[in-house]
Write a structure and sequence with these properties.
2 helices; 6 strands; globular
Length: 122
């Protein structure tokens, strides 16, 4: 499976809450980093179990993917029907398996100051 197919499959399976089915997508030495909270998840098992245990019935909607060789960047909207989070993930693959993910999560919110004269809300 190529880079785009592997990463797309990951988000599809997460959306379907089929966390165990993602195991073959990861290299044994997989590492995920979440810089906002300074957390590192070592190994596919901990990553799978963490996502499975996360509270709520979250859905993942892949909005964009950019692929270059063995690297991919995705933009995903994640929602439980009440809250929504935007995620940007940087993936590195080796031999068709995800070896690293560096993910950034952003909550939607109001602009930090009045800048309506330069922007429009969507």
């Amino acid at each position: 499976m190529g880079t785009e197919a592997t990463v797309t499959a990951l988000w599809r399976l997460f959306d379907q809450r089929r966390f165990e089915d993602t195991r073959p997508l990861f290299a044994p030495d997989f590492i995920a980093e979440w810089p906002q909270t300074r957390e590192r998840i070592t190994g596919p098992e901990d990553f799978i179990q963490l996502n499975r245990a996360y509270p709520g019935a979250w859905r993942c909607s892949l909005k964009d993917i950019v692929v270059s060789g063995d690297r991919a960047v995705t933009e995903v909207e994640i929602t439980d029907g009440n809250c929504m989070v935007h995620a940007t993930s940087f993936f590195t693959l080796r031999d068709g398996k995800i070896v690293k993910a560096r993910e950034f999560f952003a909550d939607p919110g109001d602009p930090p100051f009045d800048r309506d004269r330069w922007t429009e809300r969507y």
